[in-house]
Design a protein that fits this description.
Elements lengths: L3 H4 L3 H4 L7 E12 L2 E12 L3 E5 L6 H8 L7 E6 L2 E3 L4 H6 L2 E4 L11 H5 L6 E2 L2 E2 L2 H15 L14 H14 L4 E5 L7 H16 L3 E5 L3 H7 L2 E6 L2 E7 L5 H9 L20 E10 L3 E9 L3 E5 L6 H8 L7 E6 L2 E3 L4 H6 L2 E4 L3 H5 L6 H13 L7 H14 L16 H13 L5 E5 L7 H16 L3 E5 L3 H7 L2 E6 L2 E7 L6 H9 L2
Parallel strand pairs: 3-10, 3-11, 6-9, 9-10, 15-20, 15-21, 18-19, 19-20
Antiparallel strand pairs: 1-2, 1-4, 4-5, 7-8, 11-12, 13-14, 13-16, 16-17, 21-22
Helix pairs in contact: 6-7, 14-15, 14-16
The structure holds adenosine-5'-triphosphate and magnesium ion (MG).
Length: about 525
Amino acid sequence: MTGAATADVTGAATGTTVSAEQVVEMSGISKAFSGIVVLKNVDFSLVKGEVHALAGENGAGKSTLMKILQGVYTADSGEIRVDGIPVKITDTFAARAAGIGMVFQEFSLISTLTVAQNVFLTAEPIERGFLISDRVARERTAAIFADMGVEVDPAAPLANLSTAYWQLTEIAKALAQNAKVLIMDEPTASLAKHEAEALFELIGRLKARGISIIYISHRMDEIYRIADRITVLRDGAHVLTSALSSITPAEIVEGIVGRKIDGQLEWRERAASAGRVPVLEATGLTSGARVRDVSFTLCEGEIIGLAGLMGSGRTELVRALFGIDALSSGSVKIGGKPVTIRSTKQAMARGLALIPEDRRSQGLVLEHSVRDNLMLPLLDRTTSGGFLNAQKIVSLAQTLISKFSIKVSNPTMAVGKLSGGNQQKVVIAKWLGTEPKVLMMDEPTAGVDIGTKSEILDMVRAIADDGKGVLFISSELPELLAVSDRILVLRNGEVVKNMVRSEIPNEEYLQLAIQGA
Ligand SMILES: Nc1ncnc2c1ncn2[C@@H]1O[C@H](COP(=O)(O)OP(=O)(O)OP(=O)(O)O)[C@@H](O)[C@H]1O
Ligand SMILES: [Mg+2]
């Protein structure tokens, strides 16, 4: 499967002359953490002006390989060449000096600073002996954003902005460092469709300027859209490198998971979805400016998909239901009984669970163990009544870890050390452990690999089959269409469409409904 494009750039490995166009070459890279090998003798090369996709299952080693190139970790063995010259990338300063910039999968920004301050946090802070002024930083940041084709106020504190803007700020920050190699680790995971489009156009412009981009993604469509070549890792080993023009999606998926799978996300009729017993009834819900007069009924066994553009009010709706944001009017019934929910604790006590959008700030305590994170909502629930002994905790955590195939060598490992996708599985697993009546999920498959994604959708179906109601937010229309029995389309905080799944003929139809065409 190794295409012709590879042969002329892996010169060093094959003993032929190294092409002058080669910017980065990593060869024989190995890495272990506390004796556990996560990268085995990996080769990777990058050509000037190419977009090189890096793919693989959650925990395959993609981020670790890139963190080695970025100087966050040092390899146990192997060699890195930049522009044909062997370099020792011992820390992030060395990487930056070698022209390597990175957009981290998990953000490295400071929420109390402004956008501009974050962009210039590490890039040439000294100018004529002084720290660069806020004004200069704002002007330069504005110019970078203008070039990116997105509108962001450089003076806004990051804390006031949504996840999408954090991502854009990360990208702007790398660009501000004049990197010749840009590493993007799942950059679109938190971007709306039009923002992703703006990013792809930006990538095209960067390529034309001779910048090389390493692009980690779980999304096949965008890999084909923007990448020239792809490298696949599996269990820390190199599986294949190929030009995208000479490999099929099925071959890539086979490389990623190590076997053939029918990756199609298909909708299935479920027996339980016929149940008509309401579990959650919302009437005239209004919260802030983003949720306006929303009414719907969720029945036992039903999965309702919430569709809409970023900012349409989907996240705000589930936050209000879960007691994070206050309702200014409207009423909620659970199991036919009127309830008031003024805190997340009350929401949990009434049988609600929310898997939040931003796992890093809301879903996990990163420095705590995987086991403690899994048990957190259970412990909260049992403070008033039940009691869990230590042995029960150990076995419950183990059950969740194997049920969700969470890749962790030891349940006492800090959750922050798990790969991004595995952190996401911990968030999902911990809330399902509470056995809620109504489960609300906000972009639960963001950053999750292809195999795991369909596993998660199967879990969602099983939860509904078990008589629970599910509210499912996703910006990925194929999965929304695959799992929902009904879809509510939100726009400017209002429900503009409430459609039974069978009324939606195809993805384009739903896309148009979302955009309001
Ligand atoms: N600092 C660390 N300490 C211990 N183990 C680690 C550390 N960093 C990563 N690992 C482990 O290395 C393996 C590879 O992780 P990595 O983050 O590179 O995966 P990934 O391919 O980026 O996955 P994802 O698609 O989920 O982001 C995982 O099993 C992870 O738990
Ligand atoms: Mg990763």
